[in-house]
Write a structure and sequence with these properties.
5-stranded antiparallel sheet, 3 domains, Alpha-Beta Plaits, single chain, Rhopdopsin 7-helix transmembrane proteins, 7-stranded mixed sheet, about 20% strand, transmembrane helix, about 575 residues, signal, Immunoglobulin-like, alpha+beta
Length: about 575
Amino acid sequence: MASYRLFLLSFFLCIFSLSALASPVININKDTVQLKNYAIEYFIDTSQIMKFEQLRNQTFHPTNNTTTLGNQAPVTWYRIKLDNQEKQQQKLYLHLPKAYHLRSVAIVEESSRANNLPLLVNQTSINLNTASSHPLMYQGTVVYPFTLPALTNTTLYIKSHAYSHQWFAAEIYDEEHSRKALVGGHLDIALLVGMMVALVFYNSLLYLATSKKENILYSLYLVSGQLWIALSYGLISKAFNTYGDWVFMLNLTVFTMPIFLVLFMMAIFETSQTYPKEHKGLQAILALLVVGFIYGLFDISSALKYASNLALIMMLVTFSVSISLFRKGNPLVKYFLIGHTFFVIFNAYAVLYYKGLVEPNYVNSHGVGIGIVLEALTLAFIISHRIKILEKIRSKQAELTQQAATDPLTQLYNRRYFLTESVILVEKAQVNGEPVSVMMLDIDHFKAVNDQYGHKAGDLVLIEVASAFQKLSREQDLIARFGGEEFVILLPSSNSQAAKECAERIRQGIAERSIKLDESTKIKITISLGVAEMSIASQESIESTLNRADKALYQAKTQGRNQVCIAEFKKDL
């Protein structure tokens, strides 16, 4: 019984193995033919000169009709087997939509009935350097018409001689669907290129407004990206019906694109002045790209074999530099990281496609184009955002001047600004005949706070007190930090009584507050205040009024702190 089971298992395994080794055959048993996804076979001709008679006896390997084999298969033969099960012949059309990027294409057609030897029906070859007027070439697609005799097997052998990477696609249609497949197409690529043209125009306007070199570098990056997308996805061949060696040289844009991107990063982030370590990293990858470009001028096919690896290195370096700049607080790099992340993801996926490591699909076959456009949109935003920042800086020069007169810790005005601005306010009050008062404030026992909790806690107390002064005083009052824990407030349109009421409100507000130093520590503080009304009639100076307020403050401290004292003008004469 065990032997019987073992026999059955071996039998089924043998049947399975034979079926796996069987060549895929496409059954044509209906009038409508629209084959876009089916199994074919391939054989890599490493000698690149194998004759067809010898080729027929080679072992072919299964793949799909849309495939990529990387850069180690420049000359590859593909085999498509068709079986017409109808009792009438069928006129079909073989489409090779990626033929525009090849050196040459050859097609051999064989036909045979059951138990008969295959018969050579037709063979043709196309040199892409002279393909512009070839009858089988239509806007970058080879269209090969052939007839399937009734109840007959037909085998198509297609020789694809690529410049570098072996991309292949073969579709089979009846006459109606063939015409439809050739109408339109490449609309998605035209849209991508159109978007980049619009970005070039937009960037030109920005350059006229700013004359920044990053605008020029960005435009060159866009132009390189447009050329590469239009070339790689067949838009140039479709629009201009031109192919061959000189068109393939446009693939040098695969080097110029990252070159201008790296130069753009250096300019927009000012790495040479601000980030020397990151600048050296960008210089290193820039040198590699330039070497690749120069190499490509002499041997573009060989240069492209290393382009994918170089692209991965470039993406790794630029992404690492972006992360480093982000950690160092560059304000623009976060936007660049968003776009560059899209660029890295889509391009890395595309590199896997170019190397033949993943099954082809729309996203990975168009990954570079999608990544370029997404990053280009982000770079446009970065440029416009930077211009907006610069314009904002220009429009706020007065504010920057004011910041120079501001205490950096409390964000209140400093002593110098107060003395300058108070003179203007006093002169205005004298003209209008309005009273002006001055208030001097001091934090009680501030040294004890520093001694017990540290200077960091002391700084926090100063910040909180300054914030409270702003909230408890009036909008028109001029508040400044005079130094240490001492503050001063000038109150326009306020006599001594109004100033005292304001001082009491501030004193009480501070006393009621609890300042949180950390999660477990809260402290309460108090302040002492001295108030003096300026004698407008006697044309008293601001320095004199401040001196009287300071004496009143000293009085408040000696009387027990946490209180307000008023300095009378007559008593100080």
